[in-house]
Amino acid sequence: MQWLIPNFDGMPDELRVALVVLDYTIRILAIGIIPGRRRPVAAMAWLLAIFFIPIVGLALFLLIGTNKLNEKRTKEQERITRYVMDRSKGFEVHWTEFNVDEWVQRAAELNRNLSGFPAADGNEITLYPDYIEALDAMTQAVEEAEDSVNVEFYILSVDSTTQPFFDALVRASERGVTVRVLYDHLGSARVHGYGQTKKFLKSNKIQFRRMLPINPFRNEWRRPDLRNHRKILVIDQEVAFSGSLNLIEREYRKKKNHRIGRQWVELLARFEGPNAAELKMVFAADWYAETGESLADGVKLHDEMDTPGDVTCQVIPSGPGYANENNLRFFNMLFYNAKERISVTSPYFVPDESLLVAMTTAAQRGVDVELFVSEKGDQFMVDHAQRSYYEAIMEAGVKIYRYPAPYVLHAKHITVDDDLAVIGSSNMDQRSFSLNAEVSVLMVGGDIVPRMRKVEDGYRAVSTQLDLEEWRKRPRIGRFMDNVCRLTSGLQ
């Protein structure tokens, strides 16, 4: 008799038999259905949940067991990818300003085949590691807008820190500029003051929509932890911003964070040139998904754009709307092709098996691999899950630098040798690979790698390198929690 079925006196034999049959039916069907098109670790995690708690496990699987968007959204993403490919057909990457290894060009080809976006020369890039300076730069760009302002952020909040930016949006709309705003529904709704933010947006001429909304009463339903995690601002198609920064104060409007002095550390990039148009196309796809209004035909691409700089850029969108995990495949390629050094900054490091092998293999063949993380994360389960990987990667030779608490190092970027840099919204975790819509930007040429390295040097200067032997002596209860949380991360 199964332990889940209570042995109540007086339960009819027919009901008891029916429950046993249901129990075994769920388990047998799970074996044949769940492993399909899932990673073995994810399939095993779901099977364990269903085998231990069949009814509850099945209910959870039906709720969050699929990481794909509905058919309509998926087909629209495929259409946008084909559209971008057709619009830029015949556009070849010319590495005119610098010499790069052949593998970098192959990486660009991989991204092109997965998402449709080509690499484009002639971009000028400004980096903003300072939180307030980044917000000020975006505010100034909005003040200078003449035609359109397109805003897309995972978290959006009108507060004392971001108020100047939103006031600039209002002024832009009042002078005839089209202002569109997208924000993730659940990502923003869980932030204190969401009602006031929504009221502010409604009281002005700003066009705004929730991304991936959840409202069963309006037939808005999907797996609730599928999120749009992108951070994009595009001004007149000429200038764009992207990176890790959300539109919210540095303490994320939490009393505990104010009390302990916890603030987020970000990195934002300003792009001027063809990359702005590529980011506008990403916005256009998300705007169409939520409104049905197409902006794609009005987006200029590459040969129609000015080329004010010397950096080649390529936008890499990823997420459940794509058939492949675009960011994961690209990141793996970086690790396997790095020759001397690869530096990774990620607040949430919960890799899948392929990325873990790629990272440790790079270190074992002599590449200097370093990982920047927070000393103490802001999310309990994710923080413990990522700690479970530290010992294995340090044994392989990876150096881990922990940014001092109470700060949260939320920046997300990579540098590889002297060849390329990557910045964007994507973390190194299974959520960013499978569940979140993300956007990253590949950057090659000019002095972008040295400038990114300077940011990394700043992290290293204030961080503490984790010692393997000391880490092995950490309390057993902490190790236990690390392993438990690591298991739950496989339920994708």
UniProtKB/TrEMBL annotation:
Record GO biological process: cardiolipin biosynthetic process
Residue ranges constituting the PLD phosphodiesterase domain according to the UniProt record: 224-251, 405-432
Transmembrane segments: 15-34, 41-64
NCBIfam families cross-referenced by the UniProt entry: bac_cardiolipin (TIGR04265)
The protein's name: Cardiolipin synthase
Domain of life: Bacteria
EC numbers: 2.7.8.-
Family annotation (PROSITE patterns): PLD
Subcellular location: Cell membrane
Keywords, alphabetical: Cell membrane, Lipid biosynthesis, Lipid metabolism, Membrane, Phospholipid biosynthesis, Phospholipid metabolism, Repeat, Transferase, Transmembrane, Transmembrane helix
Database matches in SUPFAM superfamilies: Phospholipase D/nuclease
Naturally occurring in which organism (per UniProt): Falsarthrobacter nasiphocae
Pfam families: PLDc_2, PLDc_N
GO molecular function: cardiolipin synthase activity
GO CC annotation, single: plasma membrane
Membrane disposition: Multi-pass membrane protein
Gene3D superfamilies the UniProt entry points to: Endonuclease Chain A
Main subcellular location of this protein, as a coarse class: membrane
